[in-house]
Amino acid sequence: MSSVGTAAPEQQDTSHGEETGLWSWITTVDHKRIAIMYFVTATFFFFVAGVKALAIRVQLMFPEQTLITPEVYNQFFTMHGTTMIFLVAMPMAVAFFNYVVPLQIGARDVAFPRLNALSYWVFLFGGLYLNSSFLFGAAPHASWVGYATLTMPEFSPGQNTNFWLIGLSILGIASIAGGVNFITTIINMRAPGMKLMRMPLFTWMTFVTSFLLITAIPVIGVALIYLGFDRLFGTVFFQPGGGGDPVLWQHLFWIFGHPEVYILILPAFGVISDVIPTFSKKPLFGYPIVVYAGLLIGFIGWGVWSHHMFTVGLGPIADSFFVAATMIIAIPTGVKIFNWIATMWGGSLKFTTAMLFSVGLVAVFTVGGLSGIMHASAPVNLQQHDSYFVVAHFHYVIVGGAMMGLWAGLYYWFPKVRGRFLDETLGKWHFWTTMIGFNLTFFPMHFAGLFGMPRRIYTYSAELNVDIYNQLSTVGAFIFGASAVIMVWNLVKSWRSGEKAPANPWGAPHLEWSIPSPPHHYNFPAIPEVRSREPLWNDGEREEILAKTMHEPDSEPVMPNPSYWPILLAASITLIWALVMTGIWWVIALAILPVIYCVFKWGMEPAFPEGH
Amino acid sequence: MASLVLPLLMMGVATGCAEEYPQSSISPHTDFAEIIHSLYVSIFWWSMLILAVVWVLLAWVIVKYRRKSEDEKPRQIRGHLGLEIGWTIGPALIVIAIAIPTIQAVFATQQPVADDAMTVEVTGHQFWWEFHYPEQGVTTANELWLPVDQPVNLRLESNDVIHSFWVPKLGGKRDLNPVPAVREGQDPKYNWLYFTPRETGVFMGQCAEFCGQSHALMAMRVVVETEEGFQDWIDRWFASEGADFPGDPEPEEPELQMPGMDPDDEPDETQVAAEDEDPLVALGRETFLNSTCIACHGVEGTAAQGVIAPNLTLFGARKTLGAGIMENNQENLVRWIIDPQGIKAAVAMPGTEYPGGNWPATGLSDEEVEAVAAYLLSLK
User: Fold this and answer.
1) Rounded to the nearest 5 degrees, what angle is found at the Cα of A523, between the Cα atoms of A521 and A528?
2) In which band, very low, low, confident or very high, does the pLDDT at B19 lie, cut at 50, 70 and 90?
């Protein structure tokens, strides 16, 4: 890890960023370094969860196999989903928020650099805590949605579900802190002239996503606290025998869970809304419409949660309402797709790997969107719900949408991060093995589901006659797995010896390309002024901006101090939550002391070097 | 796009060819399933239309506008109001075309129940199905018998965690929720599934809501019979054992065999085997009725009146065993009685040598197991 700290060895100063070595990474408050740590950690967890997926696919390759016990299978699919959502897709998007947003808006860092570091460390420790459950043979096993009453102590004894609910609670802290940070950053730290309607789409979608984070995560927080009280202190929020209602859990979970889908997908939409114009040499078609569509998706996303619950028996009136709301949300999504195609129409398309992933997203996400419309229809949903058809659907949305978008962003922004290109040949291998492997894995699942294979089953009867679809999926999964290895190989190779990249290798229009690659730790020697949506595409404006951004400043801008309090506070937050497992109130109460101590020391520590 | 073959494949799926798939969700055999299927087919074709438009446009721009020279300077177009309105209204119209029949179907599939509908109370357990016919006074497990062309209204609830009743050829699934306790005077809230089977036959289904370790092995069969066949099954249910016994057809309130009690304490003298009976079956009956089995299992007309495990009346008429997971024959049944948890993880049933749930090992010898299996299979 420390080797990556040598990005700009010529700089040695006391403010954040440029020192090398492990300690500099532990104490860094530089948004760019935090972004790299987010990305590396999320990629690590991507493999952790991916290996579980491969184990699942091997078990399901033939009917009635017994390679994995049902209990281990349940732990694997539960942790596959939980990890992919909370430890891969979300933090990987946050990695891009961190790296790109301050650069796109012309800021030197995020609004709260130490809080940003805290978010990362809480995420890391929460993720390690959650996965440490495997060491105790007590990994969560009640699926990523954790429906009551299966999570109640009589049906899930032991610590498995405690690991899950506490782990997610810890991770929620990181998400809320991150959301607050990016909202504040985007509202307050834009360069002069960077009006809201001049912001690049990626920043816009980060903005919308951040609002979803700070509003949706507290809902699951409430649900998890109820669940924790039911499990550890004998309350009956979800206990039918005591008058509680298991369906309440489903409402709370999906009021969080559906905005969560947009938390995953909107950043990807943002990425390709920046990538497609760059490689088409054309501005985004219908910029305001694409922005409003994103906002609308964010808003309506709050009114569709019960489409996950059509089989629950809410009655025809509720079903009809959620049918209508869900179908309406398809319209802004469709509008975005047409706007991306219109951006390319008449353009000059260059199919770099970043562009391939973006176009690939438009092609395969559409499949996921359309199967989404099928089960937005409540009666049809009664057949497809909880079948492999739904497994196919949401992988088309989350892998074909969110992950493809983030990989597009990886190839797009890597030269900025490292000053070197990712290898384009390996990149094309990565893209095509992803496309083939992904479609081969998930397309046949539509058929398995239509022919009656439910999800979350560790085996299936030979009578169902769905072997062939499962075998195709298994083969596809290994190709898809290989694509991830190619990606990491490319990252390692290009990080060390990739072709050197200039400041604006793609001829892109936004501010992040106006500064050297890699950027100074203070990003902008002088803050540029913006007059349009594509400042680097307008000759006069570009020259003015580059005059401010491409020189060495006379005196270095003052940047915040590094700090080890974020990591210590994150550790003490993780500790207090972990101790909740004991269910002993005074142990938990005592563990508040290190948290208070860390907060106090954090507060007393000067944020900037002496004299500033 | 290499994946252009995929929608062609899907067309085949949408238009039938599903008979070799016994649990197919696109092969309707009830009014309920037909409503869903026709809706699915119409949405499927709308989806194919949209997909075709998007993919054709995408393929067109990819081919037509590929960069030929780095000097290209495409015209900078920022938008077009008419187009934006067009591709907002177009999809909106399609959405309306889908939403209207959808909402009609939502109400059609949750309509008020006809007066002559037959009610069956379905209770989900980890990991089996209980079917109680309140009008007939019959209780059975894992195989639901229904008369053809008779509207049936399933009342769904769960005894433990959430399950979901899904027999795809008979229609969509609905959850079996644990019903929250209510105050006096309030009605408990049950879920219902209402449909009319159109054809006789045996239909496969299984639990569709993740319910724990053996969720994958919580299957069932639905046997749709003619009116006469169904009535015959009801009659046999009452006659299977009870008819063999002289005297009171209503069995006395049984004393529950509690675990730990010596099963030899109370041989039931009233139960005398028919004269021409297989001695193995007779031995099996005696063993069964004197074992701890009957603390949980019931057999109509005998001292076995347990209610917490599947009712075994007419067991020999069942096609499958262990909640629809294997063929019901002597060999499989012997395996099951000896080692149920080896076949199906986390079932509450004890084996011959290990306890299960709150119950001790049955301690049956191999000969006794053979006999009990023969007895249970004789209940037809």
Assistant:
1) 160
2) low
Minimal Cα distance from B3: which residue of A? A439
Query: How far is residue A516's CA from residue A523's CA, in Å, rounded to a whole number?
Result: 9
- Kindly list the domain boundaries of chain B, sorted by start residue: 2-65+81-108, 118-238, 246-378
Using alpha carbons, select from B122, B204, B211, B222 the residue that is nearest to residue B163. Answer: B211
Q: What is the ipTM of this complex?
A: 0.92
- Number of Cβ within 10 Å of residue B31's Cβ equals 16
Write down the mean pLDDT value for chain B.
Answer: 88
Contact A378 B206 (CB under 8 A): no
The minimal CB distance from B214 to the residues A70, A311, A374 is found for A70
Distance from CA of B195 to the nearest CA of A (A): 13
Average pLDDT of span A195-220: 97
Contact B88 A335 (CB under 8 A): yes
Q: Note if the bond before B127 is cis, omega within 30 degrees.
A: yes
Fold exhibited by the domain B118-238: Immunoglobulin-like (2.60.40)
Q: What is the mean pLDDT of chain A?
A: 94
The confidence band for B9, taking pLDDT boundaries of 50, 70 and 90, is low
Phi and psi at residue A342, in whole multiples of 5°? -65, -30
Domains along chain A with CATH numbers: 2-604 (1.20.210.10)
d(CA B213, CA A112): 46
Q: pLDDT (tens digit, 9 = 90+) per residue, A82-133?
A: 999 999 999 999 999 999 999 999 999 999 999 999 999 999 999 999 999 9
Q: What is the pLDDT of residue A13?
A: 43
Residue range B246-378 forms a domain whose CATH class is mainly beta
Phi and psi at residue B238, in whole multiples of 5°? -80, -25
Contacts B20 to A, Cβ<8 Å = 465
Query: B-contacting residues of A 463-492, CB under 8 Å?
Result: 463-466
CB A52 within 8 A of CB A72: no
Cα–Cα distance, B239 to B170 (Å, whole number): 30
What confidence category does residue B115 fall into, taking pLDDT thresholds of 50, 70 and 90?
A: confident
